[in-house]
Specification:
Layout lengths: L1 E5 L2 H18 L4 E4 L6 H11 L7 E4 L1 E3 L10 H10 L9 E2 L8 H14 L5 E4 L21 E4 L2 H7 L12 E4 L2 H5 L3 E6 L5 H9 L17 E6 L9 H7 L10
Parallel strand pairs: 1-10, 2-3, 2-6, 3-5, 6-9, 9-10
Antiparallel strand pairs: 4-8, 7-8
Helix pairs in contact: 1-2
The structure holds fructose -6-phosphate.
The site of fructose -6-phosphate has 14 residues, from loops.
């Protein structure tokens, strides 16, 4: 794991966008795995600047979607992607994949998503956020480290963390279709961005804790090309901070493509 610690969230986000843009510049037809959530908003804002009006050549597969929400629902991840990235870069609809939250058969939808990723040649670069409880995608604690795309019940913590995006009184979905941890680990390269003090314990468990289903993100310890981009607030609970600062002072990394 490469650990890059930046002075603030804005720098960590901008560096994440730079890496995605560098990948697309050297490999325009790459297959990207994409994430949603609050952490990614500044990444997509920067990426819109990098990519301009498009049309985009890359293919994308999002990590997850709420079960029960149609793509037009303002809190669906499909809507999030349209708003924060796809509309601006003229992403051709047939190149952008998300599980259908309103599929008549969500189990078949999850199975078909796995097949579609394989048919596209697998994911070249997977972007991840991190849940405060250590989840990646919606793989909540105790998810199998070998899991594939499937339906997961969200924890109360995740539901309450996400409630801020829904209107007061609106029911927050309790189920999601998510790529599995095994699916994520199949990506050729992974970038994980986590910012803010609310993520510091999950970051420490992911990087320095035991490999354990109790912290699904710890599975990234098994992946040969994972880069963790964090700000100093999210780095606060790392015990080996001086080592990371020695190897990559200020998040400096001369190998970014
Ligand atoms: C979203 C996703 C989640 C989020 C995580 C962090 O597609 O897969 O794992 O990355 O819940 O969310 P934020 O960034 O809102 O704290």
């Amino acid at each position: 794991m490469k650990i890059l610690i930046y002075p603030d969230a804005a720098t960590a986000s901008a560096q994440t966008a730079n890496r995605i843009a560098a990948k697309l510049s050297s490999f325009p037809h790459a297959v990207l795995g994409l994430a949603t959530g609050g952490t990614m908003k500044p990444v997509y804002a920067a990426l819109r600047e990098h990519l301009g009006r498009g049309p985009a050549a890359f293919t994308s597969f999002n990590l997850d979607e709420y079960v029960g929400l149609p793509p037009t629902h303002p809190q669906s991840y499909a809507h999030y992607m349209q708003t924060h990235l796809f509309d601006a870069i003229q992403m051709p609809p047939d190149q952008a994949h998300l599980p259908r939250g309103d599929a008549a058969d969500p189990i078949a939808e999850a199975d078909n998503y796995e097949v579609a990723i394989l048919a596209a040649g697998g994911i070249d670069l997977q972007l991840l956020g991190l849940g405060a409880n250590g989840h990646i995608g919606f793989n909540e604690p105790t998810s199998s480290l070998g899991s594939r795309t499937r339906i997961k019940t969200l924890t109360h913590k995740t539901v309450s963390d996400n409630a801020r995006f829904f209107a007061p009184g609106e029911i927050v979905p309790r189920l999601a279709i998510t790529m599995g941890i095994g699916t994520i680990l199949d990506a050729r390269e992974i970038l994980l961005l986590a910012t803010g003090s609310g993520k510091s314990q999950a970051v420490a468990q992911m990087v320095e804790g035991p490999l354990s289903a109790a912290c699904p993100a710890s599975a990234l310890q098994l992946h040969p090309r994972t880069t963790i981009l964090i700000d100093v607030a999210a780095a606060a609970d790392l015990r080996l901070r001086d080592y990371y600062d020695t190897v990559h002072p200020g998040g400096l990394d001369d190998r970014i493509a």
